[in-house]
Amino acid sequence: MWWRNPSRRNAALLLAGLPLLLTGCGFRPLYGTGGDYDAVPEFSLIAVEQAEDRTTQLLRNNLLDMLTPRGAPDKPLYRLELKVTESVSSVFVTRSDEITRNNLQMTVTYRLINYNSGVSISGYTLSSLVSYNLVRADYANLVSERDARARATRDLAEQIRIRLGNYFTRQRELERERQFRQQQQQQQLPQQPR
Questions:
Q1: pLDDT one-digit tens code per residue, 81-107
Q2: Can you tell me the distance from the alpha carbon of 107 to that of 100, in angstroms, rounded to the nearest whole number?
Q3: Which of 120, 126, 133, 146 is deepest in the core (most CB within 10 A)?
């Protein structure tokens, strides 16, 4: 019986109480819903700019799936601009100067722009490094590189989603703090005699 073993019983109690501890410290899921808030409703208001090349198109498609899975917004409030660069470098070279593994370094600079004013409100440069094997077959090398490119764009899209989620969550928290301080100031104003 597992409940008779003190260490197992304590571990079970800890696991059962962990969600309560996390909610007590202010932990909130970034992408979930619950209570009086929706995790990141602003995601559905972002229009992702059209891609100029295949790599940017892959990144854009991943972002569309992550940010606006129900389709592009009718009236977007934000525009997301992407600039992608990539480079390939050799990692393993045999004694006969044959390359057997490459690194694909992909970097994206994104800017979140207010759709109406055109003002950049957030931006960052992110990077992803993925490796892939090279063999003697050219087709296998093309497939391997294509897969590495797809992995890098998925990773970058996830990094962008996390950064944007943090940005919007922080903006809402700042707005709540501002409203709270404003209410406190209004309550502290003395009533004028009539």
A1: 999 999 999 887 777 777 888 999 999
A2: 23
A3: 126
